[in-house]
């Protein structure tokens, strides 16, 4: 279901604080770390490198103009990718041909 047009984009307090620091040019010298992945990416963060918290580690993300309007969490995957384990006979064949 789409978000209503009268509702504005959600920005957390930490994002507002970073926008104010950006206008004071203090943002350029600091580490750009974000913990809130539910906020929308503002236009003023274009062409910056940010670090987004994934729960245990940080993911480095370069913000393009195409990322503006999406949420930060859409670009930081928190789940480990699953791959179906191979059978023992296939593992033996693969190891045999690698030698």
Task: Give a structural overview.
The protein has 2 helices and 3 strands, in the order αβββα. The chain has a 3-stranded mixed sheet with strand order 1-2-3, with no helix packed on it. It is elongated and about 60 Å long. The chain has helices at 13-23, 88-98; strands spanning 33-34, 49-53, 58-62. Helix content is 22%, strand content 12%. The chain has a single domain, classed as 2-Layer Sandwich (30s Ribosomal Protein S19, Chain A).
Put simply, the count of helices is 2
Query: What coarse outline follows from CA principal-axis ratios?
Result: elongated
Output the strand order for the largest sheet. Answer: 1-2-3
Helix percentage range: 10-25%
Give the arrangement of secondary structure elements.
Blueprint: H1 13-23, E1 33-34, E2 49-53, E3 58-62, H2 88-98
Parallel strand pairs: 1-2
Antiparallel strand pairs: 2-3
């Amino acid at each position: 279901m789409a978000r209503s047009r009268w509702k504005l984009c959600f920005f957390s307090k930490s994002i507002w604080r970073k926008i104010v620091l950006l206008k004071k040019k203090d943002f350029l010298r600091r580490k750009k770390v974000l913990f809130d992945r539910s906020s929308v990416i503002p236009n003023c963060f274009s062409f910056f490198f940010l670090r987004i918290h994934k729960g245990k580690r940080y993911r480095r993300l370069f913000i393009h103009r195409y990322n503006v309007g999406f949420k930060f969490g859409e670009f930081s995957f928190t789940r480990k990718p699953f791959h179906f384990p191979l059978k023992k006979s296939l593992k033996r064949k693969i190891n045999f041909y690698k030698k």
